[in-house]
């Protein structure tokens, strides 16, 4: 049913002139899905309150409720006579609904409340539907979806993830929105987060890391207290961009986290020297954006000043980690060998402030839509690095849209990493053996057979001429025998 619904929505959106690409599709489907989810959440809370003999004060009231403007009902059936349509529907959404919901940001008691998140979403996003008839069709399709059971949420989350992946593949900044889930799952298995620990992503994007960590930690034998801890006191994130913020919230909601602790802010605006113990976390999982060009006032927040966004995030993560905390961070492989002052200083700080115990070298094409080659840094804060275990991931095929990374590709890495065993694809580098001037951590597999020395052009030409001469002699001999 859900697959059919999503396909129907896609067919509708192809005719919508305000929806230009995959990014627009996910953005617009997100705000509508979000309101449908809120309506069902409020209905559930009201039923619970009535069973307990109490009252429930709804967050969204009157004509702004889903069952009043999006899907009015009469005798349990959709009431077409009461439903807004065409220009009237677009005018209501743009001029009344979005401003009303956006005002929640000012009246909410704090940034972690569902009211504040509603306000953030509808202040930052804009309705891109131009046809009220197409929007009406989409609303009617979505009204038939339900979030009531875990199985329903799981199916919806799978479909939503598929759309996020397509959105990531559609643009040059694909890695910004979609980190391959097999890679995320491998990173989580290595860190092994436990109930009671907090998990943080300061560049949350579509919240893939937090959603997968939730799935890993959600075991069948959780107590009610542990479940409450997992829901409200475990996953934290920050996201700068409006589109990624709403997608991240919706993704977490569909995975079963009712009120995601994601804050809409730029993590790099925080001065890392002001980070206190109460701000730190046990687990950090992240794929911060590469490149960029951060302003000078942002760079002032960091001891190692650089315009490279990922380098600033790495400094942020080192200081956001509690003593004994564990991190896994995706970064460009050039970080390991660049000789500029910022790269050298940051490698030195990482080696001294944390135990950089593992580096996973990812193959070209791991990230669709991104032209950079990446590595994953695994480190634990509190003691300096002594040995670095490298693993060179080689799936044995060219990576692409038709043959992306899968869990089986990473199974050997996860298994060998536990004991940091050496082999054809893995080796260990001692901290004492690093160059004290550059701290170069380049991926140089000592187990790879040395390639044959390439011959010079002169040698190749000489060999070709010699073979030609031999061939001519043979042909002359054959002609003499005829």
Automatic annotation (TrEMBL):
The keyword S-adenosyl-L-methionine applies. One of its GO terms (molecular function) is methyltransferase activity. Gene3D superfamilies: 1.20.1260.30, Vaccinia Virus protein VP39. One of its GO terms (biological process) is methylation. Pfam families: HsdM_N, N6_Mtase. Keywords: Methyltransferase, Restriction system, S-adenosyl-L-methionine, Transferase. InterPro entries: D12N6_MeTrfase_N (IPR022749), DNA_Adenine_Mtase (IPR051537), DNA_methylase_A-5 (IPR003356), DNA_methylase_N6_adenine_CS (IPR002052), SAM-dependent_MTases_sf (IPR029063), T1MK-like_N_sf (IPR038333). It is an enzyme of class 2 (transferase). The keyword S-adenosyl-L-methionine applies. It catalyses: a 2'-deoxyadenosine in DNA + S-adenosyl-L-methionine = an N(6)-methyl-2'-deoxyadenosine in DNA + S-adenosyl-L-homocysteine + H(+). PROSITE patterns: N6_MTASE (PS00092). Residues 152-448 form the DNA methylase adenine-specific domain. Residues 12-76 form the N6 adenine-specific DNA methyltransferase N-terminal domain. It comes from the Bacteria. Its EC number is 2.1.1.72. Belongs to the N(4)/N(6)-methyltransferase family. This is site-specific DNA-methyltransferase (adenine-specific). It comes from Marivita lacus. The gene is hsdM.
